């Protein structure tokens, strides 16, 4: 008899990829979501409608499954919910944003370059995490982790980096994709173009979730791509994939002359180690970062063109990019004249 899994958040980019990976490995999968997002092209839209805040409904839906994968949990209350389930094991998507810098800051509280966290390169899973009572993303995720690790139910916590993949409502790579489509001839990057913020392909996240599902246990693993390219390398790769040539100019410090910063324009590196995932569960990334990027670009271009054919725009495809300041990404004025000396 096939093993069974419930994927919570099954209509999101991570949930879709995890369900695909489990099914390909022979699992029977039920995908649960609120039903508020349309299915991604080429992905089955089957599943059940579930509000994960409804604990009774969650218990009924999860009852007896060998595995529950929760892609949307982010509070201690969610952790307590999960620990009451009658299931074999859990895989829960956490975030690399739980790590606290050596200078006592973390990603939620960054207001300027000086407040950006100081991290080792690379960050391992033993590095300290945020532990305070603030009700923001990183502290809540860290508290969720502690709650889950204190329970008896086997749980694998996956600390994801900058997630990217087909179906994303906030595909950061659009910063460069749109520049290529608009045939922009120059891009200006701060911090010498050397910013590094570790990407995490949904396909690679799904492969790691599958590896954990097949070897249940209590563990915390980083979940990112094997490579961590620089800001400039990401731009060049996107331009190459779209056959676009552009000059990438850089400035040594923060953004100048009203030129926007890309989502990877960080003053200090944020790079994670995947050694423990390889050692603990035999994880092997199915995609290189470049191969995953190619899938992102192909999907994004087609999705935006469909939206435009229907009278919409890229805002309809990537509604969550506003949180990254995307409304200010594409004025181009400062980049067209180049950085001042």
UniProtKB/TrEMBL annotation:
Q: Which GO terms describe its cellular component?
A: cytoplasm
Residues in NAD-dependent epimerase/dehydratase domain copies:
5-167
> Which InterPro entries does the protein's record reference?
Epimerase_deHydtase, NAD(P)-bd_dom_sf, NAD(P)-dependent_oxidoreduct
GO: which molecular function terms? aldehyde dehydrogenase (NAD+) activity
Pfam families hit by this protein: Epimerase
Q: Please report the name of this protein according to its UniProt entry.
A: Nucleoside-diphosphate-sugar epimerase
| Source species | Friedmanniella luteola
Q: What is the lineage of its organism?
A: Bacteria, Bacillati, Actinomycetota, Actinomycetes, Propionibacteriales
């Amino acid at each position: 008899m096939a093993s069974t899994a419930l994927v919570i958040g099954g209509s999101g980019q991570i949930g879709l990829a995890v369900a695909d990976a489990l099914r390909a490995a022979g699992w029977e999968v039920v995908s649960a979501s609120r039903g508020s997002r349309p299915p991604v092209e080429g992905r089955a839209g089957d599943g059940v409608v579930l509000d994960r805040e409804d604990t009774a409904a969650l218990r009924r839906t999860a009852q007896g499954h060998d595995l529950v994968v929760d892609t949307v949990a982010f509070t201690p209350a969610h952790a307590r919910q999960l620990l009451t389930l009658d299931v074999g094991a859990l895989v829960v998507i956490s975030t690399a944003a739980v790590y606290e810098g050596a200078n006592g800051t973390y990603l939620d509280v960054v207001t300027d370059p000086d407040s950006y966290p100081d991290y080792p390169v690379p960050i391992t899973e033993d590095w300290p995490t945020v532990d305070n009572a603030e009700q923001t993303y990183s502290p809540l995720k860290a508290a969720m982790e502690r709650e889950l690790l204190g329970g008896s139910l086997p749980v694998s916590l996956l600390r994801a980096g900058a997630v990217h993949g087909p179906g994303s409502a906030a595909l950061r790579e659009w910063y460069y994709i749109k520049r290529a489509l608009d045939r922009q001839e120059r891009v200006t990057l701060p911090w010498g173009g050397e910013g590094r913020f570790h990407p995490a392909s949904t396909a690679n996240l799904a492969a790691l979730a599958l590896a954990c599902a097949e070897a249940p246990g209590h563990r915390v693993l980083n979940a990112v791509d094997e490579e961590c390219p620089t800001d400039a390398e990401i731009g060049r790769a996107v331009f190459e994939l779209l056959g676009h040539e552009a000059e990438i100019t850089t400035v040594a410090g923060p953004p100048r002359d009203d030129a926007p910063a890309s989502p990877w324009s960080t003053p200090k590196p944020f790079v994670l180690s995947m050694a423990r995932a390889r050692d603990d569960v035999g994880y092997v990334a199915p995609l290189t970062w470049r191969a995953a990027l190619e899938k992102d670009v192909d999907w994004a271009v087609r999705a935006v063109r469909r939206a435009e054919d229907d009278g919409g725009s890229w805002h309809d495809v990537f509604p969550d990019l506003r949180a990254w300041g995307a409304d200010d990404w594409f004025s181009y004025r400062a980049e067209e004249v180049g950085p001042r000396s």
